[in-house]
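--- STAGE predict ---
source: upstream dedup step, 1 unique chain passed
mode: sequence only
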Amino acid sequence: MTGPSVKSCVIVPGIPKGFTYTGVSCLLTEVSVRTFFLIFILLIMPALSYANSGGEGGGDETGIGYMEITPKFTVNLAEPRKYLLINLQLLVEGPEIREAVKKNMPAIKHELIMLFSGRPIESLQTVEQREALRQETLDTLHKVLEKSDKVKNLQDVFFTEFLIN
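--- STAGE serialize ---
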């Protein structure tokens, strides 16, 4: 009479050689490892997909949503050793405007740097002055986008960070 068949089944890294399982437990271990990897992949893939999308939040690609212009703008002001740091979010509607913004990003950044830099601190102190700068920013963005792509559905621009130092 022979005993139960024993086979060596080294599936998982770290199990020493010579460690043996019975056929049933080896099968269970193999199924458990496969299940673990399947669950791991199903949980991680959506997170990786979101990370690859650039993290543009606030709406789907066809509807209305926000687009962040990155990186933040840091420009010198008129006074020595003074600078302005601005973070912008655009309110856009539709895939055409999203593509136009992405396509024209170098021109947009250039125009905004020219708009923000060299301003005296006194022109950025009050809420009304900052609102006027926000409107100038929106007008500048409209000009850049209409000039190159004839796109007019940029809804608004918001300063999500505004720091004078």
